[in-house]
Write a structure and sequence with these properties.
The complex is a heterodimer of chains A (157) and B (549).
Chain A: E1 2-10, H1 14-21, H2 24-29, E2 34-39, E3 45-53, E4 56-69, E5 74-82, E6 89-97, E7 99-104, E8 107-121, H3 123-150
Antiparallel strand pairs in A: 1-8, 2-3, 3-4, 4-5, 5-6, 6-8, 7-8
Chain B: H1 3-13, E1 18-21, H2 28-36, E2 40-43, H3 47-61, E3 65-69, H4 73-76, H5 79-87, E4 92-98, H6 112-118, E5 122-125, H7 132-146, E6 149-155, H8 156-159, H9 185-195, E7 201-205, H10 207-211, H11 215-225, E8 228-231, E9 245-248, H12 255-262, E10 266-270, E11 289-294, E12 309-312, H13 315-328, H14 339-345, H15 364-374, E13 380-383, H16 389-395, E14 403-405, H17 415-425, E15 431-436, H18 437-442, H19 447-452, E16 457-463, H20 468-476, H21 491-497, E17 501-505, H22 508-520, E18 525-530, H23 538-545
Parallel strand pairs in B: 1-2, 1-3, 3-4, 4-6, 5-6, 7-8, 7-10, 8-9, 10-11, 11-12, 13-14, 13-15, 15-16, 16-18, 17-18
The chains are: A alpha+beta (157), B alpha/beta (549).
């Protein structure tokens, strides 16, 4: 089980960050290698996601469900997917929340604490688990940068 | 004549010239008879090493290797080597004594059938004294036809019975038909249809192709259809004379090779099992169609899949037929064999990642590159498993009489015995073994065996004083790497204490100097090279750190 406890800080307003995070297609655009597919009857989305583990690329067909709590500006994401070639499966749950830190005009800062767990299964999984851990952390960093970019701000170091 | 004498005669008639193992009261009479019959005994310090040597003999000569152990505790020592030989598909016959049939409470009693089964070995038991011939013939028959190790279990008391039959022994070779499996015209036509439409074909060659002697035919086919040639780990460095041979397909592939293999549209596998490592769980060839040429009725690929087109054939005959069919169709293309690809391959094996080298140690990468240059090409190479394989399996690139690499059971320490057996099996020609410190230490007692038989094997112990695979895995998990660190003595001095030669080296120049001394007079030697832990093998960078290069 890979666990992520990250706190992304973006130099942008909570409203701007929430506007991105409350739009599944905008969120997916912040995830490197991800493409959103059709919306399903249950509100979930099909998605494709290509993840590089070392020089090899694993292409997952995934299903993603995002549940929002507008009042608290938070959300739960559950995603599961499978790679047809290697048989690798993943199952992920993620909780996030948008928190305003400092909204003075010259020091806009929003924090997004993210808590996620990702389980990899299949024969490749045990082989790459420690590498996958680092890959997911790198993807989280990349997500934060792209999110900040879309918000028109910058990711704080 | 006693039954043990008849058993010895039967082994000799099966072609046994050398036996590796350790004497006990369950096999000593048979060994005594062997000595009288002119069979050379190599006494080892651990029974498992004896089986490992027989395994190496079998891999090098393609004839059954023979080892021996006494009943019970002698036999159980064979466990890891048995599984390794089974995974290596090595024909090996292990003559094992068994407790007396009249004494169920014998101290060394063991259910050797269950043991063999657990170790993935076939089991043959001499149930009565009259069955001596049949038991030996059956053991060799299984080893030869199924290419696997066999435990021949012979009760001690039955060995002492009188053998009264005076008919000559009929060896298994007399009843095994010799024939080459040739391909059907339909299968070849189908394969040619697919291959002639390929734009970026790749030929993956394994041990089966090597053993069938298909080298020239493979290069001819590759030139005709514009294919790159990749090898399995077991066929490492084969066909490197071809400028489009791109190294190993799988975990030990270079980054450039992975990029090219991933874009291939047709893979022709020849005498290669295309297991999960060769295909990297299929990820190396996401879009390719597979043509598989192999003499077996069928071979299941990684993840239980079959090839799109299967050609049952001996490698050489199958490749020649496929090339002839394409020639008949006037098909010839550049495919992957372009100047641009050649340029990409030129230095693809180089590892340019910068690391700060620990003081008093060597960067293992230039060590491998310089040794590959320094060692004449008539010196064979054996590459152990474990952490060091991440360097040796990529950076040693020259063709040599024997290049033996492989993980098989995934255990460490098994390549030294295999190397000794292979060197003895091929006329005591000088060879080197690249291995790690834990592997070297595991069977260092049998360096004594190397000394007693003056085996011209130079062991380079790439000594990082830790269990390398675990060291980097712990590091990736942010756990204390010191948990995996184990200091060693000066193994060069240990080698000298055994009566061989040895050196402790902390620079590449020191290694080269010691190597030149060995080349001047090859014999048993250990060069203990202290290597830097700071350099992470490329394979571990990929697996444990998810990095690209």
């Amino acid at each position: 089980m890979i666990e992520v406890n990250e706190r992304i800080e973006v130099a942008s307003t909570p409203q701007a960050v929430w506007a991105i995070l409350s739009d599944p297609s905008a969120v997916v655009e912040c995830v490197e290698g991800a493409v959103l597919g059709e919306k399903q009857e249950d509100g979930s989305f099909n998605a494709k996601m290509a993840v590089k583990f070392g020089p090899a690329k694993i292409s997952f067909n995934a299903n993603v469900l995002v549940e929002y709590d507008e009042a608290n500006q938070s959300g739960n994401v559950t995603a599961r997917g499978k790679d047809g070639i290697s048989g690798t499966k993943f199952n992920t749950t993620m909780q996030f929340k948008v928190e305003g830190q400092d909204t003075s005009p010259d020091n806009v800062l929003t924090a997004v604490p993210i808590k996620a767990s990702c389980e990899l299964n299949g024969r490749l999984a045990h082989l790459i688990e420690s590498g996958a851990n680092l890959v997911i952390k790198r993807m989280t960093t990349s997500f934060a940068e792209k999110l900040a970019e879309r918000c028109g701000g910058t990711k704080t170091p | 004549m006693k039954v043990y004498e008849r058993l010895s005669q039967a082994f000799k008639a099966e072609g046994t010239t050398n036996v590796f193992g350790m004497m006990g009261d369950g096999n000593m009479y048979w060994q005594y008879a062997n000595q009288k019959n002119g069979i050379i005994m190599h006494e080892v310090r651990h029974e498992g090493v004896g089986l490992g040597m027989a395994d190496g003999w079998a891999r090098a000569t393609r004839n059954p290797g023979v080892c021996t152990a006494t009943c019970g505790p002698g036999t159980t020592q064979l466990a890891t080597a048995f599984v390794t030989a089974a995974r290596a598909s090595s024909p090996v016959v292990a003559f094992c004594g068994e407790y007396p049939t009249s004494d169920d409470e014998y101290t060394q009693a063991l259910d050797q059938s269950a043991f063999a089964h657990g170790c993935e070995a076939a089991f043959v038991r001499m149930g009565t004294a009259d069955d001596a011939d049949e038991a030996v013939r059956k053991a060799f028959y299984i080893a030869r036809t199924q290419s696997r190790p066999v435990l021949l279990s012979v009760p001690m008391d039955l060995q002492q019975k009188t053998w009264e039959d005076d008919e000559p022994y009929v060896p298994s070779t007399a009843i095994i038909p010799k024939r080459t499996v040739t391909p059907s015209a339909d299968a070849i036509a189908q394969a040619a249809d697919v291959l002639s439409k390929a734009k970026r074909p790749v030929i993956v060659v394994g041990r089966g192709a090597m053993w069938s002697g298909a080298g020239d035919e493979i290069i001819k086919l590759a030139q005709r259809c514009g294919a790159l040639i990749a090898t399995t780990l077991q066929a490492k460095n084969w066909l490197v004379e071809d400028e489009y041979q791109i190294g190993i397909s799988g975990t030990y592939a270079t980054k450039t090779a992975i990029q090219l293999l991933s874009d291939s549209d047709v893979v022709v596998a020849i005498g290669a099992s295309l297991n999960r490592y060769t295909t990297h769980e299929g990820l190396l060839y996401p879009e390719a169609k597979f043509i598989h040429i192999d003499p077996k009725a069928h071979v299941l690929l990684s993840r239980g899949k079959g090839a799109d087109y299967y050609v049952q054939s001996d490698g050489k005959a199958g490749v020649a037929a496929l090339e002839a069919e394409l020639a008949k169709r006037n098909f010839k293309q550049l495919g992957y064999r372009t100047g641009a690809v050649k340029e990409r391959l030129a230095n693809a094996w180089e590892d340019r990642r910068d690391y700060k080298i620990d003081e008093g140690t060597v960067d293992p990468r230039p060590l491998c590159v310089e040794l590959d240059d320094l060692l004449p090409t008539d010196i064979s190479l054996f590459a152990g498993s474990g952490c060091t394989a991440g360097f040796t399996n990529i950076l040693f690139r020259k063709a040599r009489p024997m290049v033996m690499a492989g993980h098989f059971f995934g255990c460490i320490g098994q390549m030294m015995p295999a190397a000794v057996g292979a060197v003895i099996g091929t006329g005591m020609k000088p060879a080197v073994l690249m291995d790690g410190d834990a592997s070297t230490m595991m069977h260092i007692g049998d360096f004594d065996t190397m000394v007693r038989y003056n085996v011209p094997l130079l062991i380079y112990c790439m000594n990082n004083e830790c269990l390398g695979a675990e060291y980097y895995k712990l590091d990736a998990h942010k756990m204390a790497v010191e948990t995996s660190c184990i200091p060693t003595a000066d193994l060069g001095a240990v080698a000298r204490a055994f009566g061989g030669r040895g050196a402790l080296c902390r620079t590449v120049d020191e290694v080269k100097k010691a190597t030149k001394e060995w080349l001047a007079k090859p014999g048993p030697m250990i060069i203990d090279v202290r290597v830097s832990r700071s350099v992470v093998p490329l394979t571990y960078r990929r697996i444990h750190y998810g990095e690209d290069e």
